[in-house]
Amino acid sequence: MPIAARTIRYEHGGVEFQAYAAWDDTGHHARPIVMVAGTFMGRTEFEAGKARALAALGYVGVAIDVYGLGHWPADQDEARAQMDLLDADRALLLARLNAALAAVRTLGGPADGGRVAAIGFCFGGKCVLDLARSGADVAGVVSFHGVYDPPPFPRRKIATKVLVLHGWDDPVAPPESVLALSKELSEAGADWQLHSYGLTVHAFTNPARGAMYSADADRRSWQAMTNFLEEIFP
């Protein structure tokens, strides 16, 4: 199938951002949108590849940008500095996520702006959980090997469906943080699921991370996400 793609520019707080959208270029029906929030490295080819993989499943995949043009990191040290700035200001992070959400809703063409979900990897997993926590109008979120510390903004009922895909031996998100997240989601009344993969650590979906990558957990988690999206977008 022919996969079409284009970049999308939008602005928030005087900063310009650039997302990457991909979709199956056959047919003319509007498709649900699935936003892709990236790892601490930002919007890279890894996230663009996930957008194209979502396009192959019949969605409009959009890899979003939370750092902004001129702030894309060149290496891991720069990436950690950019991530730390947003970790220290979760309100700014949420505002940027909502700006991305508003931008993807206006895509038109193959995209159904009324049906949106979000997936995220590592730092992006935290991003999509914050969207759900904030009450953003998204049908569901999927966190792949995310980070679970709650934001400082007030807790509210979570109407968004949540799927958490977790490596049980992840040192970034140890078991106590997983239990705290499950308690938080339950208290917020969320419809949530947790799939945990044994003998699996952080970044298990990314082959570039060497020994951290798990082909089995990667395949199983992607299938779990596929099933989840089919449920929320029947």
Beta-strand content bin? 25-35%
Strand order of the largest sheet: 1-2-4-3-5-6-7-8
Identify low-pLDDT runs.
none
Q: Indicate the radius of gyration in whole angstroms.
A: 16 Å
Report the order of strands and helices.
EEEHEHHEHEEHEH
The tally of domains stands at 1
Instruction: Identify the CATH class.
Output: Alpha Beta
- CATH level-4 homologous superfamily: Alpha/Beta hydrolase fold, catalytic domain
Assign an overall shape. Answer: globular
User: What's the end-to-end separation, in Å?
Assistant: 22 Å
State the total count of DSSP E strands.
Answer: 8
Number of helices: 6
Oligomer: single chain
CATH topology: Rossmann fold
What share of residues is helical? 25-40%
